[in-house]
Amino acid sequence: MRADICDCAAIDALLAEHRPRAILHFAAESHVDRPIHGPADFVQTNVIGTFTLLEATRAYWSALPDDMKHAFRFLHVSTDEVYGSLSATDPQFSETTAYAPNSPYSATKAGSDHLVRAYHHTYDGLPVPTTNCSNNYGPYQFPEKLVPLVIGNTIAGKTLPVYGDGKNVRDWLYVEDHCSAIREVLLRGELGETYTVGGWNEKTNLEVVHTLCDLLDQLKPRASSSYREQITYVKDRPGHDRRAMQSIHASSSEGSAGSRQTHSRPE
Length: 267
Description:
Layout: H1 8-18, E1 22-25, H2 40-62, H3 66-71, E2 73-79, H4 104-122, E3 130-133, E4 135-137, H5 146-156, E5 160-163, E6 169-174, H6 175-188, E7 194-197, E8 202-204, H7 205-219, E9 231-234, E10 243-244, E11 249-251, E12 259-261
Parallel strand pairs: 1-2, 2-3, 3-7, 4-6, 5-9, 6-10
Antiparallel strand pairs: 6-8, 11-12
């Protein structure tokens, strides 16, 4: 069903009708450029929407029989952008990295993470593990994201805009491997814990764009020159993190659960 996650009545009706054993909360405004000019939508969806889902979930979960209540999970899917930016020599993000969001998008996702944690500690241990993942790529990705944007613009003969000097670094993870990690956390994750999910695959934005151009040069060559000639450099966006890299180990947010490796796909 397509519904607004801020619509309390719609969420309550879905829970009553389908009686789920788990809720996976992916819903978010996630395009980092957009909140610079319109942050209100991000606050509404990422913060108020998460609050609405948590309230509906709390009421639903509290009324379940003990066996269903014990098995139920609310898995909150978040981003590594809540941790801010790394220098070239900093170690990777982990579950104990302090939050330092630099954009309205990452700030609203950080807010949603804090709400989820608070509900676990405040409301009878509401079963809410959280995952914080690095950049995904894969089939059917929204066309504003870097990889599909570059592919679409390249084939259409449009410019390939690269922010700043193109040396902002991200850790890239194939979407199916992210889903494998989510399944693992859903099945075996500790309640109230946070799990970082990454791919050990750091690339600068320019490396990603060059790789895509080179692949398209082979698959759909232009008559005269490389697609790299379509690259243009544009002014960097405000609050653009310089480097973000995830640890692929999941450990206790309280420092007591040891280290457990998530599923990932090193490239």
